[in-house]
Amino acid sequence: MERSHERASSGQAISPEQRPETADTALELLVHGVGGTTPEEMLNDPRTVRVTGDETAAVFRRVDDADAEKRPDDYRGKPVPEAYVWCNLTSGNGARALWLLLLPFMVVNLAHWMRPTVSDNRTRTVRLYGLLVRLVSLTLTVLLVAAACEVALDLAAWQCAGTRACAADHSWLGFLAPVESGDGWWSQPGRRLALAALVPAALTGLLWYLSHRTWSAYESQQPMTDGADLDEDTGRLGLGRPGFWYGRRLVARLRAAHTAAGLLTVTAGVGTSAARHDRGDGGPVVLEALGWLLNASLVVGTVVVVWVVCRRGRSERRLDRQLDEALVRWLPVGSLVLLALTVVYAGWSRPQWRSVARLPGDATFGGIVLVQGLLVIAIGVVAHLLYRSQPDTRTAMRGLAGPAVAMLACALGGVFSGGVAQRVADWLDGTGGSIKGPPVFLTWQASVIPPLLVVLLALFAWLARRTVQLRRAAMNEVKQDYPSEPKDTERTRRIARTRAMASLTDRAPRIIGITSTVTLLLGIVALVGAMTADEVPGEAAQGTYAFVEGAAETAQSLGSWLIGVGFILFVTWGRRAYKDPSARRTIGILWDVGTFWPRAAHPFAPPCYAERAVPDLTWRMATWTRTTGGRLVISGHSQGSVLAAAAAWQLTPSVRKRVALLTYGSPLERLYGRWFPAHFGPDALSGLHREIDCWRNLHRATDPIGGPVRLPGDCGPKVDREPLKDPLAYGRTAEHPLPAPILGHSDYQADPAFAEERQRLLTRLRPDVPGPRPEGGALGSHEPDPDTPPDGDSQPGPGADGEPQGNSGRSSA
Predict the structure, then answer these.
(1) What is the pTM for the complete model shown?
(2) Which helix (H) or strand (E) holds 28?
């Protein structure tokens, strides 16, 4: 056995002569889905033992199966069950609830992976798409830090501390207020700004620390790339590339650039105001020269940061272990040094300087939003060009899902920044009117939220109407599915309603498309209104029609309230999740879907759990099959099926020949294939079907997440079984004396079809390594069709469309 382990670690396959006695053993590797579960629930046994792994992710077995390889005779005709538990990667301790604040970063990172499928001759266009998404991500970092600067520098240090009435209401600002402190040392505006700069600088440092720590904890696992079989798979594409799940170099480079961008934003907030004062009031020549030098340094630093972001993307075709150490180390350090020098410069004594109105720089937020809008439009143009090169009707929004999601990420960033500024301004001033408050643009931005909510309500009304129509249509389908049962109208209506609700998932592209388009248009209205009027909407509408004045006042007041309350609810939800494990698990479901992808666009996004989970599964499958020579079925539910497919892509050909794939409740095509066509589109899934030995997929019409894989028949035997009946029994029967539940997305293993399909896959996987598949597509005599029952019955199983099918052709792997 030790020699077998040595061969497995070195990547050597075991020949039939070297195969141990455990070659006939079969293993079922279970992978759970979103929300997580316990190994006891997965294995249906209260006594489990951890086979390998740690507290974060591990493989478990039942205690009785711990030494199954030593007792192969006890497992003839049945597989050894194992459970891979990865829920702690996304919904572990309470601190991960704070990841909610990184939601805009996660969403824009998704946009990077949503590009359409293209041919190899569009490489430059693909690179341009990734570059534009990285630039949008950079603007989101700048927007977040600018919002912190607005709160700390402008509202607190500049406006409130510089206003006697506001400072008197907040004693903690007394030492910064000129009157309250008797013109103390900290009361000069430059020194107040220098002290307040610690808040956004600390926020930037916290983001850097979280990104660095989570990389070490989650994403530093190197894929299994060593071994003799590595060069056998020279045609790997997409998720099968050696470096796909190891983006250390890009994440480190982007982390340095975004950290530097945050520090430069703080530098600009502190230093440009002092430089403007020195130029305008005829101050000392030395200070004026230092101000010009500061501005020049900011421009140089900005150019360097943008150059680093634009320099290159991911290295996926090889495992890139290199690190740009000089850049990663000195770019943030240089920005920090520049900030320190700026703080000293701003803190220089200027007795005549007084803080009046708002801090100069109101155009900052409008400029950021303008750049974001132009970049999103550019991403839309590039995505359209990519889609035209290889169109696919199943692709969500005809290839425009990426720019639409990027637009929503920018909108979330705007809500966060505006909500923080509005609530802090209200807290500092209340209704006193002693300070000017946040920039005019943020008020305009909040004022367009009520019209957006009207559009969303209209969309929800359309969804409700569509649900009623679908339920009526499903009533007849339910009656046809249970023809011999006595009909119960309420039971039929409940089943039909569940099916109708499940089908609404397919309407998501329309909802996202309309919402993002309206958001873009309303953002343009807010930007134009703020730039032309230079007043809040209520003041800008004065003197016009009474209806316009009333609408503007209502939108301004309601929008300010909504954006503030929305942000408070968001923070409250995060705080509740910190203390409540059930709420934490709900948030974990969001991350299960949103953080599957590596951090290719934004380094401050929540960590990618798949960069830990996929290598875990790959190592487990490769080492077990090569050590024992046995058969393995990887069985994935929901998001677990996506992890299982990603791990199967990473396997070498000699291992894939011993592995079968069983998916159920799988979003592989319904969600991932439509929204991420470049990596889960028809070409990618068909390639996986050809390369894996055999694959079956189970789904239900009542499942809102899982669905058929919809692979064409020319790439091998059908993957999809006809939709499973749900509920298993319409009324009370001898087998189901009590009403059977409507399972929807859960408990697929309760259906007899699950055990049947698993046994078919194990029957197809022979103890000996199967030979090449015939060129003509016919199955060999030693390779039974998975649609043929194991008892020899020649009745073919159902296909993806629900119709009976014969033996389909299967091309060579």
Answers:
(1) 0.86
(2) strand 26-31
